[in-house]
Specification:
mainly alpha, binds zinc ion, transmembrane helix, 8 helices
């Protein structure tokens, strides 16, 4: 078990470092191939500067060439993918097919969370990839085909309406596509649980950030988070979904 957890974490961290490249370069006009370099001085990275998490800590978060700061995105994405992979192993072992399946879902989730946070949009391809996985789940692992399909459609319609009637101010259309997949993946009760968690977490964290934004008018810090700036919602949706998947939470338990 311990060895499995360690291997899962390391695999996740390595996948996470590939995700970092995708998050940084996808749809930005930069090529996805080619060696990574420092964003400030352009210095190509050697293998010793590419070790997930370790390199960042070793270099104290600075470029070896020009000493400019390296984004916290790198170690955060690497370690959270690692932890997620290990948690999946811990909660689903020994069913290898399910573990690999959820590792794929986890990779897509981390990409969407970080990309949406950074660029305020979910790339269609990431949504389609997740949708494909959700369809696989319904066909091969799913408890109930009809329940999953109805849940996905209901979620999609609700979010589509929220998007349409708010002119995209509350949510993006990408969020509607995302909840279609989450409904398919989770089914009715887990799906509703995930949405409730997402709204609660979104409210708590959103209000916290807005509060910080208010305070920051005095401190002139955290200027990004004011009332007008959108807090991306996909991270909360996926966080809610993962809490539900990993810990079998059920919101109906409380009623
Ligand atoms: Zn540099």
């Amino acid at each position: 078990m311990l060895l499995g957890l360690i291997v899962s974490f390391l695999l996740g961290a390595i996948i996470g470092s590939f995700l970092n490249v995708l998050i940084l370069r996808y749809n930005t006009g930069r090529s996805l191939g080619g060696r990574s370099g420092c964003l400030s001085c352009g210095k190509k990275l050697r293998w010793s500067e590419l070790v997930p998490i370790v390199s960042f800590l070793w270099q104290k978060g600075k470029c070896v060439g020009c000493r400019s700061r390296v984004s916290w995105q790198y170690p955060i994405v690497e370690s959270s993918t690692g932890f997620l992979f290990a948690l999946i192993f811990w909660s689903l072992a020994p069913t290898i097919s399910l573990i690999i399946f959820y590792w794929l879902v986890a990779g897509a989730s981390v990409f969407i969370i970080a990309y949406d946070w950074k660029h305020q949009i979910i790339p269609d391809r990431a949504n389609y990839f997740l949708f494909g996985l959700a369809v696989l789940r319904v066909l091969f692992f799913g408890p109930s085909l009809i329940e999953s399909v109805l849940t996905g459609l209901a979620f999609f319609l609700i979010f589509w309406a929220l998007w349409y009637f708010s002119d995209g101010r509350w949510l993006g259309f990408g969020d509607a596509k995302l909840v279609l997949s989450l409904g398919l993946l989770l089914g009715a009760s887990a799906g509703v649980t995930a949405l409730c968690l997402a709204f609660w977490l979104g409210a708590i964290i959103g209000l916290t950030l807005i509060a910080f934004g208010r305070v920051s008018k005095l401190l002139k810090l955290f200027k990004r988070y004011t009332m007008k700036s959108e807090v991306p919602f996909a991270p909360f949706l996926l966080l809610g979904a993962w809490l539900t998947i990993l810990f079998q939470l059920n919101v109906f338990f409380f009623f």
